[in-house]
Amino acid sequence: MLFSLIFKATQVSLTKKKSMTQTAFITGATSGIGKATAALFAKNQIRLILCGRRKERLKALEEELGKLTDVMTLQFDVSNKDEVFSAINSLPENFSNIDILINNAGNAHGLSTIQEGDIDDWDAMLDINVKGLLYVSKAIIPKMTEKNSGFIVNIGSIAGKEVYPNGNVYCASKHAVNALNKAMRIDLNKHNIRVSAIHPGAVETEFSDVRFKGDTEKAKTVYSGYSALQAEDIADIIHFVISRPYHVNIEDLVVYPTAQATATIIKKEG
Ligand code: NDP
Ligand code: 8X3
Fold first, then answer.
1. Which of 153, 155, 181, 261 could be disulfide-bonded to 197 (CB atoms 3.0-4.6 Å)?
2. Which of 31, 111, 158 to mutate to test the pocket of ligand 2 (most atoms within 8 A of CB)?
3. What is the DSSP string of 58-106?
4. Over the stretch 218-251, which tens digit does the pLDDT of each residue have?
5. Per CATH, which fold does 23-69+77-255 belong to?
6. Is the pTM of this model over 0.85?
7. Using a 6 Å cutoff on CB, does residue 157 contact ligand 2?
């Protein structure tokens, strides 16, 4: 009996130690998919580097998730390359060995025809969703190629697989993420680095609040009348993807709410 208890305790502590050696870097961790992923990773004892621009939220996450795992936060704008490199280069030794990068930060800004589109919105989407992902990847990949291991998960969208009315530049930015995911897979193959993309349909987060510039009533209509995906659903999938044995690499996953067939076909009640 005593032997079996000691054996079980050793097993638990070995399992914990094994997963505690993994460190994940999550961009856009202050809200939605990134925040839910951080919470799930913390429950699984993955060490966390959490990023975003909103300092108070980062502080709250550090306090909350710090009870479960080691957490460090970095406040920077992914579209500002100086901020990206100085934040990542400032990581202390015990957080510099990054195993998993979740390239999640991003948003849609506006929803209008190409002829009526706002150039500032276009800049924001291309700078954040595309160039931001590139800057963060460029700063972290050398740490992975050096040790010939690592995992990069790029959060795309169904907007990277199809184009819908008024989605123009957001769709272009997510098509770029889709292409970069494929490109990373090719270029990083020789370094044994796993690369995956997850392309969600409608997920009920702050996404539409941002798209409609704080018009929360309009944002709510995007998710009303059906069961939209929740951030936790995507976090679950991300965790599944990163927890496969090392020889397994899921390239690309497209996930919709059951009620959604395409970007524009959603079966709503009422
Ligand atoms: P949220 O608006 O809830 O979260 C967006 C996150 O990105 C926030 O943490 C925000 O943090 C961060 N972020 C935005 N801009 C910047 C920036 N310039 N620098 C640093 N961080 C930034 O949306 P979601 O969780 O839904 O979105 C996450 C990802 O999922 C995005 O790439 C989005 O395109 C994608 N996606 C979302 C879908 C949906 O329906 N919700 C569907 C398909 C894909 P902060 O403001 O603190 O900087
Ligand atoms: C978010 C989903 O359909 O608004 O990427 O583009 S959609």
1. 181
2. 158
3. HHHHHHHHTTTS-EEEEE--TT-HHHHHHHHHT--GGG----EEEE---
4. 999 999 999 999 999 999 999 999 999 999 999 9
5. Rossmann fold (3.40.50)
6. yes
7. yes
